[in-house]
Amino acid sequence: MFPELKNKIVLVIGSSQGIGKAVVETFLNSLSVVIAADITYDCDKLQTIDKRYFQIHLDISRETEVSELSQQLIENKMVPDILVDVAGISTMDFLVNSQTSDFEKTFQVNTRGTYFAMKYFTKAMIDHNKKGRIIVIASQAGKNGYRGMSAYVASKHAVLGLIKTAAIETAPNQILINAVCPGIIETEMKQRERVEGGALRGMSAEAVRQEDISQVPLKRTGTPQDVANVVLFLASPLSSYMTGQAINVTGGMTMH
């Protein structure tokens, strides 16, 4: 789709399902070289899937693992031109009943993990004089509040603060840092949230799904590909005058 992305090295963190899987497939279709990192993979060294596709295990919440992956890519002359951080988790409970451990776990992955990825891979890009792109999958929950999701909402608000600050700091290096804020996207995580959130509210998962649709002006929920398309735009030359932005992909549900 964008010839400029051919042979660009793209690291996708959180790549095994949902939005991350769609992002991987989209960049492979663009003839990029894709490194897919995910906690579910069992290979500690880069595993070649084919000549343009590699997989590796990564727990983004562990700083040592992020640092070691950065060093491994440097040693293999595979410093990313583009980083896409999709990794994220959610927990469901009302604030007064919530567990502190769930709050901390959510921040460890969503916020600390994003911080680690941005810290180490931005440094690698700068050290190797790469005018790169960093794209973080945040959420419309980084702009709004949602019942039963205090930890997730707070973590995504923090992520947007990180990308704004980092975008200012890396602008002199021509490293553009932006976030994508998906709305209601049909993923495995969303399906689980409907079950757990519905139980909190005395609703079936199907009733929650219908409520979801009713809140979207376009009258449909999103697909992982809807999000991957915007990621591709942010990685492309078409977004060369954009940094520090948080772009909604919500079907009109969030407009700010």
Structure description:
It comes from Enterococcus devriesei. This is Oxidoreductase. Pfam families: adh_short_C2. One of its GO terms (biological process) is bile acid metabolic process. By secondary structure, this protein is an alpha/beta fold. It has a single domain (3-183, 223-249), classed as NAD(P)-binding Rossmann-like Domain (Rossmann fold), CATH 3.40.50.720. Helix content is 43%, strand content 16%. The chain contains seven helices and eight strands, in the order βαβββαβαβαβαααβ. The chain has helices spanning 18-29, 63-75, 100-127, 150-170, 188-201, 205-214, 224-235; strands spanning 9-13, 33-38, 47-50, 53-57, 82-85, 133-137, 176-182, 246-249. An eight-stranded mixed β-sheet has the order 3-4-2-1-5-6-7-8, sandwiched between helices. α1 links the parallel β1 (9-13) and β2. The protein is globular. It starts with 8 loop residues before the first strand and ends in a 7-residue tail after the last strand.
Strand order in the sheet with the most strands: 3-4-2-1-5-6-7-8
- Write the element-wise H/E pattern from the N-terminal end onward: EHEEEHEHEHEHHHE
Helix content: 40-55%
Low-pLDDT parts are none
Which descriptor suits the 3D outline? globular
CATH topology: Rossmann fold
From the helix content, strand content and strand pairing, which structural class follows?
A: alpha/beta
CATH architecture: 3-Layer(aba) Sandwich
Q: What is the mean pLDDT?
A: 97
Report the sheet with the most strands, covering strand number, pairing sense and barrel closure: 8 strands, mixed
Give the tally of β-strands: 8
- Helix count, per DSSP? 7
- Please identify the top-level CATH class: Alpha Beta
Gyration radius, rounded: 18 Å
Q: Kindly, what is the distance between the CA atoms of the first and last residues, rounded to a whole number of angstroms?
A: 29 Å
What is the percentage of strand-forming residues?
15-25%
- The CATH superfamily title: NAD(P)-binding Rossmann-like Domain
Give the assembly state of these chains. single chain
* Number of structurally distinct domains: 1
Protein name: Oxidoreductase
GO molecular function: oxidoreductase activity
Family: Belongs to the short-chain dehydrogenases/reductases (SDR) family.
Pfam family, one: adh_short_C2
